[in-house]
Amino acid sequence: MRTIRLTYPHSLLLEELPETIAAIGFFDGIHKGHQKVIQTAVNKADDENMESAVITFHPHPSVVLKKDVQHVQYITPLQEKQKIMQQIGVDRLYIITFDKTLSSLEPQAFIDHFIIHLNIKHLVSGFDFSYGYKGKGNVQTIQEHSRGIFDFTVIDQVQSGHQKISSTRIRKLLQSGHIEKAHELLGRPLIVRGIVKEGDKRGREIGYPTANLDVSSEALLPKIGIYAVKVLFKNEVYEGMASLGYNPTFTDNREDPVIEVNIFDYNNDLYGEELVLEWHRYIRGEVKFDSAGELVEQIEDDERRIRDYFHL
Fold it and tell me: Name one GO molecular function term (predicted).
């Protein structure tokens, strides 16, 4: 997959670009609804012997359009989004910088510049896709704005439990600890990836060594608590338990939550290594214990529950 970053105005030449069938949207989470949009474009491209593309945006429009939003956390940060697009089989990923200049483009100008001039011959979008200044362009106006140069397909909403699958719905599930339902809507486990950094080594002292993960500040994390997790490292998959929180038994003034992972039946040094963490089940909330002994008793119970969960 080729990744191409664009800002307005871009300098790509129409005559140098292949005829392409593209899916367009922000696609945070790349959930089952998004997957239907993207897979439709990939399949059409295969049928027409053209290249497939995804056109997406970064950062989230709210960072630019809302004064009170300075930072957004994503279900799929940009690096993760790129990896999933490649796995789906997308040939080209266009990442358009969303800035104030882009937000002020009239719908026709947006279509001319980022669809027609990218040699898109068929565009696929979700039913609620909008474009151009104040979202004035939508699936009702796209035929007019296409100038007859490209065709388009609109994908109806994909539902689960009689509700639309959406990034907002998935965010709420993750932030309330309903991990397994979020996975159902995503079509895969939520993952974060991070580098193992040095921690305070208390886990090793109490018999449960942990890998402390340094993850991107753009990664959306689930509800604070203890989780059943799987850890992907060097093409191997390990079971384990993760604590996401502030470690209140030993620390009173931590500002940001930390991720500490105990990998079952693994004792090698992991400092500096990248781990991929799959969140599988919320086990319990974070608790401040009166002693390290009480904490160890609870961790032992957590381990039993999580091992049972993975081996049901």
Answer: FMN adenylyltransferase activity
206 band by pLDDT with thresholds 50, 70 and 90: confident
**Same domain? 48 vs 88:** yes
- What residues have CB less than 8 Å from 115, skipping those under 6 apart? 22, 24, 55, 123, 146, 150
Which residues, in sequence order, are bridge partners of residue 227? 242, 282
C-alpha 238: how far from its chain's center?
Answer: 22
String of b and e for 1-32 (b: at least 16 CB within 10 Å)? Answer: beeeebebebeeeeeebeebbbbbbbbbbbbb
Which of 118, 149, 164 terminates a domain? The answer is 164
In a domain, 174, yes or no: no
- The sign of the torsion formed by the CA atoms of 260, 265, 267, 272 equals negative
By the 8 A CB rule, do 201 and 269 touch? no
The residue among 22, 23, 14 whose CA lies nearest residue 119 is: 14
Indicate whether 140 pLDDT > 90.
Answer: yes
Residue tagged 């060097």 (tokens): 234
Number of domains within the chain: 2
